[in-house]
Amino acid sequence: MEQEKRGEREAIEKFDIKLKSKPKDGVILQLHHTVRGSNGECRRIRFTAGIFDDAHDKLACADNAGNIFILDFSDLKFWKLPGVGPCTALQFIPAKQDTLIVASAKKYEMNFLDTETGQVSLTLTGHTAPVRHISFSNNVKTNNLLTASPVEAILWELRNYTKYFTLNTFLGAQIQQIMFSPAGDYLVACFQNDTVQIWKHESMKSVKQIIPSELKHMKSIAFTMNGRAMAMAGLAPMLILFSMDTWKALKTIDMSKYNISGAHQLAFIPQLFDGGANKILAILSSDCVLYLLDLESLTVIHMIHPESSGIRKFVVSPSGKYFLCILQLGEVNIYNCSYVMDSAQNCQNCVVETMRKEMPGTSTHKCPSQMQTNSKSQIEQKMRVCMDSARLRRILMQYGEYPDKFRSIIWRSLLDTPRNKIAYAGLIDKGIHPAYKDIEKQFTIHSAVTLKNLKRLLSCLAHWCPLFGVMKFLPGFVFPFVKVLQKDPLLLFESVASVLCNYCQLWFEYAPFPPISVLAIVENILAEHDQPLLNHFCEVGITSQTYALKILETAFSEVLTCSEWLILWDHILSNEPAFILMAVVSYNIVQRNALKRLKTHEQLENFFHMQNPIDKKTFLKKAYVLLNETPEDIHPRRFYTPFVSLEKGECYQQFTGYPKATICLKLAKKDRTKSLKSDKYTLKELTTRSQEKEIQERAQVEDLDSDHQSEHSEEESVHEVCIEKHRRTRKKSHDAAQNNGDFTTKETREELIESIIYPATIHLQRNKSGEFKALKKDKEPNKHSRSKTKKKSSENKNESLEKEVEKLLRTYTNSDLSDT
Q1: Which residues, in sequence order, are CB contacts of 201 under 8 Å at separation 6+?
Q2: Measured on CA atoms in the order 303, 307, 312, 314, is the torsion positive or negative?
Q3: For residues 489 and 456, is the Cβ–Cβ distance under 8 A?
Q4: How far apart are CA 39 and CA 490, in angstroms?
Q5: If both were cysteines, with which of 250, 622, 668, 757 could 241 make a disulfide (CB 3.0 to 4.6 Å apart)?
Q6: Where is the composition biased (Polar residues) (predicted)?
Q7: Per-domain boundaries in the chain
Q8: Cα–Cα distance measured from residue 283 to residue 231, given in angstroms and rounded to the nearest whole number
């Protein structure tokens, strides 16, 4: 028997491992398990769990196939144990050397495994669901083992391995996390109903229940090493520090200030000489990024975001010497905490040292204010030289996004904003624009500061260009920019103005109608790269106004999360203006499977008004593929002008993307309003008089109507002809955009403008010379009846004209009248 055991022990082969010496990113070792199949293809097996044993400087990791790897950092060796099947949790036993508890995923058993031989010495059963949490109490009096699944928790007495206590849960209040406090005095559990329950370990009596009202969707709790403080967080961007001595909340931290939308996991990182009162809290955000937050200075000292993949979970060793990150692709990165802290400290020192070098020394020839101004301008000039677009684009392609801390500076450099303080002050002095005076009634904005900044931005845009005072989608378009850049109002205005001038080209060409040219471009690109998806849209009956315009008008803010939106606009602002349309098509193609399952118009409408899960890397990669592989004859860059920044000076350049037809109607309305105030006529009377006079003068050249009945039928036919002409004009513009790609031809633009200025209610038509004449009637009236009914026809015509003009006013001038 002893020979058999010795043979099994010798059968386990150990291999050397080599750790990186002081790496810049702190990663001393990377683990990945790749196997070669029978057909020669390589397949990677994902790691699912890991645990440290500080007492013996070891690490155990398990993969999906049930393989368990032991890494010995003292001897720099690793080996693989015979698998016991897929497992859901691992834990070393503190009191016993080389013993590992492995929770089985199939039979929900706890197997006590020898890390040297791989033999199972003991098996505990009793769970009805996979075990997720294993914890040991460090209490001398009661040395117990805690194992827990989402539906129950069991306390085991380690002397004879019997059940000591069982905690059962009910639906809706399942266990999110459960553990002993560091001293072993308390048992603390976090439940799905956002409740934290604390029991006294010895008596298992409930001593405290915590229901934080500000914290929703709680996911994780963590203790400091001395057990005096507990951190709680969840999917809401709120972090609560709780005192275990006074049973009161010590501090509430808004994580959104650090661009952390929520937390999936928390853990304190112990450090030397901190007395167990750990100050560094590791937070795994909802965006799969690990943040190291200093709770004393309330600053993020380091951020870990591996290039290859996001982080799924992390584990910190009890002493704080190491921690590991299990990536979403299944790899494991092992970090040395001291190296990570040193690199974080070096980064901060570099920033401070750079600023000190840039600041000149004191001089008796210059006043301090002048020196400060000169140094600031010099620093800004050097930053502009260093942050040219080519260098920034290389950084973006390497890391996938810009650092949150420097994003506003980088965006300013990419857009080359002029910082025209005098021109901006002139717009501010005009006050709140009437169109946005009561915008809080249209949108629910809880923050008074955000509302104030939104009003100020929209008012400045409307004073800069009157068109922006009547575009209904504009508040929703600029709102995410307000949230990101509101600390610098000047940068906010100039950034949005630059985006409207460059990345929103052709958007306002046919306002107030949809941008036909832009939608035609998007439809052509989608037809080129995914014709079946376009066919599905046509079958359901939705157009590019749904799958493209809805996304553009909200700047992607309705379909992407905050972090996804920031990353996307990092790429949009770093590329040519055509990239934003490629991003729209990319979003549809990446969501193809979800879109094809939707069979009704209402379902598809709702899809483009909500945040749907999306792989950021696939989404952006597809956008770049479209940008590079779209044929030139339908590529947006054929119709877009290159990026042009705002001019530096005492006034901003004029916005030239005006829709000419809308301007004519707007100016005509203003002229009528002025006449209304001076002549005391209503707008309806003025419009009726002018249109009646013009039609009567042109009608003298042609034959008049025969009788009231024929006139009425003829008016209806003419009305239908004009409507049909209007439809043909819009169709012609759309066909020209689809087939020829010439979205800005003179003929198409003039016909569309004509259809807007001279709608179907005005019965006029152009002749070949370009003049207007009355439309000919289908039937030639009798000359005898003409003289008898001339007066009656004229009266009926006036009455009909008055109705038509009233309809015209309701259709085209309701929004204009509200401005006056």
Answers
A1: 137, 139, 142, 144, 180, 184, 185, 186, 187
A2: negative
A3: yes
A4: 61
A5: 250
A6: 811-820
A7: 2-348, 390-505+648-658, 506-640, 677-819
A8: 10
Would the CATH topology of 2-348 be identical to that of 506-640? no
Cα separation, 216 vs 265, in Å, equals: 14
Chain-centroid distance, C-alpha 302: 22
Fold of 2-348: Methylamine Dehydrogenase; Chain H (2.130.10)
**This prediction's pTM:** 0.47
Amino acid of residue 667: L
731-740 in b/e burial notation, b at 16+ Cβ within 10 A? eebbebbeee
Enumerate the β-bridge partners of residue 29. Answer: 334
Residue 32: Cβ-neighbour burial (10 angstroms; 0-12, 13-18, 19+) = middle
Write out pLDDT tens, residues 643-664. 999 988 888 888 877 665 555 4
3-state DSSP of 206-240: EEEEECCCCCCCEEEEEECCCCCEEEEEECCCEEE
Starting at the edge strand found earlier in the chain, the sheet holding 311-316 runs 27-31, 332-336, 322-327, 311-316
Degrees to nearest 5, angle at CA 804 with 803 and 807: 90
CATH 1.10.472.80 holds for 506-640 = yes
Q: Where are the alpha helices (DSSP H) in 282-404?
A: 337-358, 368-386, 389-399
As a whole number of angstroms, the distance between CA 57 and CA 53 comes to 6
Give dist(CA 811, CA 135) in Å, integer: 71
Residues found in the chain: 820
pLDDT digits (tens, 9 = 90+) for 10-59: 568 889 998 887 787 889 999 988 887 667 677 788 899 999 987 788 99
| pLDDT greater than 60 at residue 701 | no
Distance CA 666, CA 467 (A): 10
CA 189, 300, 58 angle in degrees (round to 5)? 60
Is residue 224 packed enough to be buried (19+ CB in 10 Å), middle (13-18) or exposed (0-12)?
buried
Neighbours of 562 (CB within 10 A): 19
